Amino acid sequence: MSQQTHMQPLLIELGTEELPVKALPGLAQAFFDGVIDGLAKRGIAYDRDGAKPLYTPRRLAVLLKGVATEQPEQKSEVLGPYLNIALDADGQPTKALQGFAAKAGIDWTQLEKTSDAKGERFVHRAVKPGAQTRELLQDVIRDALAAMPIPKPMRWGDHDYGFARPVHWLVVLLGKDVVDAEILGVRSDRMSRGHRFMHDKSVWFSTPDDYVEFLRGAKVLVDPDERRERIVQEVTAAASADGGSARIDAGILEEVNGLTEWPKAIACSFEAAFLAVPQEALIATMEANQKFFPVLDASGKLSERFIGIANIESRDESEVRKGYERVIRPRFADAKFFFVEDMKQGLASMNEGLKTVKYQDKLGTIADKVARVAALAETVAQAAGVDPQLARRAAELSKADLQSRLVNEFPELQGIAGRYYAAVENQPLELAAALDEAYMPRYAGDAIAPSKLGQVLAIAERLDTLAGGFAAGLKPTGNKDAFALRRNALGLARTMIETGLDLNLRSLLDTALDQVSFAKTLKATDDRRKAADGAANAGVEASKPVPVVGGTSLAEIDELQDFILDRLRSYYADQSVPTQQFNSVAELKTASLLDFDRRLKAIAEFALLPEAEALAAANKRIRNILKKVEGELPTAIDPALFAENAERELAEVVDAAVADTDPLLAQRDYVAVLGRLARLRPQVDAFFDGVMVNVDDAAVRNNRLALLKRLSDRLGSVAAIEHLSI
Fold first, then answer.
1. How far, in Å, are 154, 273, 634, 701, 724 from residue 626 at the CA level?
2. N or C terminus: fewer CB in 10 A for the chain?
3. 80, 100 in Cβ contact below 8 A?
4. What's the burial of 300, exposed, middle or buried (CB within 10 Å: 0-12/13-18/19+)?
5. CA distance 626 to 629
């Protein structure tokens, strides 16, 4: 692109009816990106320093400090016929050349020549001035709108075009001039619109530089960052005025930001009697249903105050406040009613109801799942040093609240509601807390369960979900993951690693898969019995059932373990762990994820040693040599068969390293193991420099292969270090 010197600021604003709030940031970004891409594709220089999507519920805008007023010169090159086709024997143009020249609009003598691998040919080269930017902007805007992700465009009037919402005005300014354009039935102008209620009149811009400031004067904050900051300041100030602090959820903040052009905080309150309801239910309805910001007291508990955000500076705030308080009371009253009725019912009664709720066709009811989780919790508890009977009791109550009215109304309160009901029934506090913690981590970035009992339940629950999902054929494919198995696998792995629980994952997977297999067998038997009963009643012969065989294969355990390890790739990638290091440990398929983590940390330290690369390359070479051996690898080493000093010395240092690292491996001091093995490099290098492995003498060859196998086994005792070799 040639150097552009004449630059002018550019403003494009598309005015609409209120755009869908959750889609608004994405629509604004797509419009901004589309305009930028359109300028770039047409070779129009621009300065996007500090530029970003600008938007409110009623407008999408692009504001650039400088855009070239014209394209650079447009060069073209069109290849024509080769000389042997273009010219006859007398050197005169053939019809092929004449046609090519005519198409180019010039005489054939004005054509140039060029050469390629096939020979010399004619070519038409041309240079024409670039188009004016103002002439191209309409197409830039149209292309940007056409590329926007709008799955269901709206249509209005009798037009055959559509957009996310009907369009009412269009501003296109390049410098001081209005760029003539017609988009979605609206012609461009320099007139925008202010706030719908506080400045219901046009806003006139002389240049794009006026845009943000003039709209601010018209009670519109078009910069979403400025608007978001104002919301936070308003909410924080309103909450602190009464000695509280606002709970500002990032998602709710973004939604409120997309609902307002001039946000104004309104301090509100509700009856303190509602605080008897679990605060999570009250917070959920305030945030999800009304987009309000709860106010917490000094201890972090919900107070009877909340903050609403109006899109107007009302002359009578009290009326706005009354409206906000009025809409929240019915929801709070419902939550209170559900809570009281649930307490009358009790967890035991709720548990009974789980017997009639299907979990999955092949896996029975939720009550069946609870029974499996209880058995797993007892097993995990024994290994984790937790009271097995307390773990079983907690697991048996862990899904009871799914039958509660409160969870039916607020599904996000699963576990949280159970904690409250358990506390009301004077269940042990540790057990009550575990009912909530069993769901942790609930989302990416959430903390794991803080208590040992909660960790046991979280592990047992996820083990059964994963085993059941795989056994029922619900493995994730592409974007489909109906049982959230990926999230459950990562939650299981994180809990085992971050808690420091040294559990045998393979053994637990075996137990979980066995339980699921047994459940499937019982289900199939029950189905066969029902089919037989139905056939007998109908007087017909029942069809032969398909046999279901219980038991778990090693392949099933391997598949599920690999699935869990694969979820850890992104977990460790976020910690800047190189892929080669992860693969080196993953190849060993260690039974304990805590052990996996220790090995990974050790290999990271080993990779920093100067000997690491050479030993990794040596082990890669050894593995390649051993792979080519037909039949069983030799393991017996006879010192009498050593013919070279290098192999004698290597055997001696390997023996010493094995003796030194045996106790270190038993202690899982992997850093020390790898540090000790790093000292083998001189002898390993000398061996490969001076010893040939595949000699004709079979006894000598097998002796050397046995030595290399012993060395390789020890080098790979912590991780498959050959993965570190580039």
1. 67, 76, 10, 12, 19
2. C
3. yes
4. exposed
5. 5
Q: Report how far residue 416's alpha carbon sits from residue 438's, in angstroms, rounded to the nearest whole number.
A: 10
The tens digit of pLDDT for each residue in 41-76 reads 999 999 989 999 999 999 999 999 999 999 888 788
**Structural contact between residues 403 and 350, judged by C-beta atoms closer than 8 angstroms:** yes
| pLDDT tens per residue across span 631-658 | 899 999 999 999 999 999 999 999 999 9
The encoded tokens of residue 232 equal 């936070």
Residues forming a β-bridge with 64? 10
**Residue pLDDT, tens place only, 528-556:** 555 545 544 544 444 333 333 345 678 89
Q: Which amino acid is at 393?
A: R
Q: How many of the other CB atoms lie within 10 Å of CB of 443?
A: 8
Helix, strand, or coil here: 594?
helix
Residue for token pair 């762990």: 577
By C-alpha distance, which of 392, 393, 397 is closest to 346?
Answer: 397
**CA-CA distances (angstroms) from residue 548 to 346, 486, 515?**
38, 27, 14
Closest CA to 135 of 187, 68, 180, 183: 180
Distance between CA atoms of residues 499 and 453, nearest Å:
12
What are residue 182's DSSP bridge partners?
187
Which string of DSSP letters, residue by residue, matches 314-346?
Answer: -S-HHHHHHHHHHHHHHHHHHHHHHHHHHHHH-
CB-based contacts of 340, cutoff 8 Å, min separation 6:
none
Element (H, E) at 124: strand 119-128
d(CA 237, CA 217): 23
Cα separation, 105 vs 494, in Å, equals 71
The answer to whether 256 and 309 have CB atoms below 8 angstroms apart is yes
Q: Could you tell me how many residues make up the chain?
A: 726
Alpha helix positions (H), 130-223? 133-146, 211-217
From the list 401, 463, 388, the residue with the least C-alpha distance to 432 is 401
* pLDDT for the residue 89: 87
How do residues 270-292 score in pLDDT, each as one tens digit? 999 999 999 999 999 999 899 99
Looking at residue 578, its amino acid is: P
Angle at 345 between CA 342 and CA 346, to 5 degrees: 90
CB contact at 8 A, 287 and 252: yes
Q: State whether the Cα torsion 696-697-702-703 is positive or negative.
A: negative
Contact yes or no for 404/338 (Cβ under 8 A): yes
